[in-house]
Design brief:
Oligomer: heterotrimer
Order of helices and strands of chain A: EHEHEHEEEHEHEHEEHHEH
Largest sheet of chain C: none
Shape of chain C: globular
Bound molecules: sodium ion
Number of helices of chain A: 9
Distance between the termini of chain A: 43 Å
Helix content of chain C: over 70%
Structural class of chain A: alpha/beta
Chains: A alpha/beta (302), B mainly alpha (165), C mainly alpha (434)
Helix content of chain A: 40-55%
Chain lengths: 302, 165, 434
């Protein structure tokens, strides 16, 4: 019997983790227990920034990572974090298809393999005050938690504030943060409705969580077990994307029942944010070079 | 040799103290940045690196000052010969463990460099640079334990210091 | 491999290494190493370095070294002397007199700091020498400090509540509110204990200072102004949103430096001594934290805490029996792991069980925090005990014995919160009702 450890940073109740737990169970069932995968939720084995490295070094045979987190290392990891490049589930699925060969190649060079990836629900803007256009964000205290969100703040003239996830709740209560961009799902998880009253469903981008596996660990399996893993992964991917859409609908409803105003962005806000997206894409392409250009071209042809 | 080693431990501790100041400045910077934008990005990450360096670089110096804590109940209850034997045993264990710690810390930094492991934060620091402090600090701790072990072997009476408040 | 056998072997190796005088941080590393090499299929070394690096460079930890430094600066000023001068006249009538400064100091400081080690170290640095100078007996001083230091976790802000809130998916703001009254309750119980102790040990409590008129008392209280200002400034920075709870420690250091400059006690020598003292004290704690992080990883791989929690879940207990079982479980675990690790390692299994039993998750969070507080003062692995050992140089078993009554008091607090759950649940309902 082979045993794998699969660390993830998200709590056991998160829909990604629920999906991974099902995946682990499917693999166990399909291989008759020959491959047992232990899922370690809630950063109980490794913390978010360490997981990729742990899989690479085979300290964990598989793991779940948020791809955009690793943009510093290789620009195409961050492609699904560019605003309005892919602003719906369908578009995000196409972007994933365009990105996937490059992802596989890069991870392959690093001694890993991509098993599957599932998008988070689309990102919208949370704000304390109503927003009619991007101008209303000027001077607002905007939570920047990644290079992209930090750059957006600069472009719309918001005041970027760095607050760790752990202290977000307190920062909202004391007014350190007045606006931020994240998904409806994360908004519900972090109880943003306790402090922010407006949600604009801009569907700006759909970042993906990827489940990756160490290549040596995978190669050590016999052919039948490998096939079982790949088959379970393909099923988990379909299940995950469907779950993500369901979670999106449910969480927007939850935001509403908790007294939040949930609405689509005004035409002005939408076009302002699209302009921001264009700038970010241009800057991204400069950094990503021909490799990035090829992925974007492939995506636009789809 | 004695003077060289002591200079090494204390020199690293001075660096550690500077890193402590670095931690303070970086955290203060994050506060100030919220009101008045500072040119440096990712100060929260730097605060973490400085803190780690402060801890690791002062490991050997703190050991030499007898301020790493241990349970000395049994040691103190034994006679001179028993105490020396037990002291040699615990120092041997410590030499082994700190050796592992140092070896794998160095390997971590080395692998980070060959993997091109970069911080996922806004700072985008190549991680082997701050991890170097961990490698150097744990190596010095290992050296300090070997040093202590050698002194104990040569018959220095086990000196189980009481730490003053 | 049989879990019972693994547990026995690890506990034995822990006691053998600790007992033979191996440094505590290295002992934890050693036990983790043994556990991982023998009972998990994974090589230990690389995982050890990766996880220790992650925990040692984690931004949320920066509050600890900075508060330790603040304590070292204040220790070298007249501040603590002044504080006692100001408090003494008011506490003359209270049985136990200045012993209560430990508890009051920790309660106040807990509102600033989210960690129990920082609370214990900072207040201890100021109070221990002064109480010793005034002739209070070591035992009760150290014991009450060990107990009160844990309030750092229960009174908001609290690191451990953030960890629990994120994993259990409950509002951190509500958890913070829920901790206030239980925190005051534990503080009250500790003070009641000190009074009781004093009543039975009249001969050991130093004599009262000569009586003063009310006006003289007020005059003496002027020396409290600097401390009050410092605490208010740090607290204010948190609650007005100038700084987050973690960043407040940096303002604390600056405040302490300004105060010491204003008092004229800041010079190159005191600055250097405070800096080096803080670096060494933090280094001592950091080596233990590194060992603890590795032990947590090792436990995660072996799965011991998880298996035990799963076993409890399989018993199908009634809510009360379940809570008692969980309390015993966490107290046992708390002897060997630090608080945050306990929660992170077991939440995945324990939460569904607790939810299934219909227990309110906010209330359970407070229950957990108190149990974790108890874990901070149980040997062999108890962080407040380590901090106090570092500061007093006394033996670990002796410190643990002094802290034992506080452990019993916290069990009492648990009982009270079970019987009167409103102690925890009332305030969050009031605060969050809109
Ligand atoms: Na606190
Ligand atoms: Na304990």
């Amino acid at each position: 019997q082979t045993k794998w450890d699969l660390p993830t940073a998200y709590p056991a109740s998160n829909f990604h983790t629920v999906n991974i737990t099902q995946f682990a169970k499917d693999v166990g069932d399909a291989t008759g227990g020959k491959l047992a995968i232990t899922v370690h939720p809630g950063a109980s084995l490794f913390k978010a920034p360490e997981i990729k490295r742990a899989v690479q070094g085979n300290q964990a045979q598989a793991g779940e990572i948020l791809l955009v987190n690793f943009q510093n290392e290789w620009q195409p990891f961050g492609l699904d974090g560019i605003p309005f490049l892919a602003d719906s589930y369908d578009a995000a699925r196409k972007l994933y298809a365009a990105q996937k060969p490059a992802l596989q190649k890069k991870l392959g060079e690093q001694g890993m393999m991509l098993l599957y990836a599932v998008a988070w629900p689309p990102q919208g803007i949370y704000s304390k005050t109503p927003l009619n256009s991007a101008a209303d964000l000027k001077g607002s205290k905007w939570r920047a938690y990644s290079p992209a969100t930090s750059r957006i703040a600069e472009l719309v003239g918001a005041q970027a504030v760095t607050v760790q996830a752990a202290e977000l709740s307190q920062a909202l209560a004391t007014g350190v943060v007045e606006s931020m961009m994240t998904s409806g799902a994360t908004g519900v998880d972090s109880k943003l409705f306790e402090h922010l009253k407006f949600y604009y469903d801009t569907q700006a981008w759909l970042p993906k969580n990827a489940v990756i596996v160490n290549k040596r660990a995978f190669d050590a399996l016999d052919k039948a077990t490998q096939d079982a893993v790949l088959k379970a992964a393909a099923a988990a991917e379909e299940r995950g994307w469907a779950a993500s859409q369901r979670v999106n609908t449910d969480t927007l409803a939850t935001l509403r029942t908790n007294g939040m105003t949930v609405q689509p962005p005004s035409a002005a806000l939408k076009s302002d944010m699209q302009k921001v997206g264009e700038v970010l894409l241009k800057e991204w392409l400069e950094k990503a070079g021909p490799e990035g250009q090829a992925i974007v071209d492939a995506y636009k042809k789809m | 040799m004695r003077r060289l080693l002591d200079a090494l431990y204390d020199g690293a501790a001075v660096l550690a103290a500077l890193c402590m100041i670095g931690t303070l400045l970086m955290v203060l910077g994050s506060v100030i940045d919220r009101f008045h934008r500072l040119p440096l990005r990712g100060m929260d990450a730097y605060a973490g690196y400085f803190m780690a360096a402060a801890a690791f670089l002062s490991l050997a110096h703190t050991l030499k000052r007898g301020e790493h804590i241990r349970v000395t109940l049994v040691l103190n209850a034994l006679g001179a010969r028993g105490r020396r034997a037990l002291e040699l045993w615990s120092l041997s264990v410590a030499v082994g463990l700190s050796g592992l710690f140092a070896f794998y810390s160095a390997r971590l930094a080395w692998q980070s460099r060959s993997f091109h492991d970069i911080s996922t934060g806004i700072d985008a620091t190549p991680l082997w640079i701050p991890q170097l402090a961990m490698a150097v600090g744990t190596l010095l701790l290992f050296v300090a334990f070997v040093d202590e072990w050698w002194l104990a072997l040569r018959g220095r009476v086990a000196d189980v210091r009481e730490v003053g408040a | 491999m049989d879990d019972l056998l693994i547990t026995t072997l690890l506990v034995l190796s822990l006691f053998a290494l600790l007992g033979s005088g191996v440094w505590i941080g290295l002992t934890l590393t050693g036990v983790a190493w043994i556990g991982m090499q023998l009972f998990s299929a994974r090589p230990a070394g690389d995982a050890m370095a990766l996880t220790i690096w992650g925990s040692a460079s984690s931004w949320t930890l920066t509050t600890l070294p900075l508060f330790v430094w603040m304590g070292e600066i204040l220790f070298r000023t007249k501040l603590s002397e002044d504080m006692f001068k100001g408090l003494a006249p008011w506490m003359n009538r209270l049985p136990g007199r200045l012993l209560h400064t430990n508890i009051l100091g920790c309660t106040l400081f807990a509102a600033v700091s989210g960690s129990s080690a920082a609370t214990c170290a900072t207040v201890g640095k100021m109070a221990l020498p002064e109480l010793k100078r005034r002739g209070y007996p070591d035992g009760i001083v150290v014991g009450s400090l060990a107990g009160a230091g844990t309030l750092g976790l229960l009174i908001p802000p609290s690191l451990i509540m953030i960890v629990y809130g994120v994993t259990a998916d409950v509002s951190i703001a509500r958890l913070f509110a829920a901790g206030v009254f239980p925190g005051l309750l534990v503080a009250g119980l500790l003070m009641a204990y000190v009074m009781l102790w004093a009543a039975f040990h009249r001969d050991q409590v130093p004599a009262a200072d000569p009586g003063m008129s009310f006006l003289d008392k007020l005059k003496a209280s002027r020396s409290l102004i600097p401390v009050v200002l410092l605490i208010l400034a740090v607290l204010g920075s948190i609650y007005t949103g100038v700084a987050t709870a973690t960043e407040a420690a940096a303002l604390g250091v600056v405040g302490a430096l300004l105060l010491s400059a204003a008092q004229g006690s800041l010079n190159w020598r005191t600055f250097r001594d405070s800096l080096m003292g803080a670096t060494r004290l933090y280094c001592m704690i950091a080596l233990i934290l590194a060992g603890a992080a590795f032990l947590t990883l090792s436990m995660g791989y072996i799965g011991l805490p998880r298996h035990l929690a799963e076993w409890i879940g399989s018993l199908g207990l009634s809510p009360l029996a379940l809570l008692v079982a969980l309390m015993v479980f966490y107290i046992l675990l708390g002897c060997f792991l630090d608080g945050i690790s306990m929660i992170v390692l077991t939440m995945g299994v324990v939460l569904p069980i607790v939810q299934g039993a219909g227990i309110d998750l906010i209330w359970f969070g407070i229950f957990l925090v108190i149990v974790v507080e108890m874990a901070q003062i149980t040997p062999p692995v108890g962080f407040n005990l380590f901090v106090l050992q570092g500061m007093t140089g006394r033996e670990l078993p002796w410190i643990a014995r002094q802290a034992a009554p506080m452990f019993v008091l916290m069990m009492g607090a648990l009982g009270l919160i079970y019987v009167f759950p409103e102690i925890a649940t009332w305030l969050p309902q009031q605060v969050m009702r809109r």
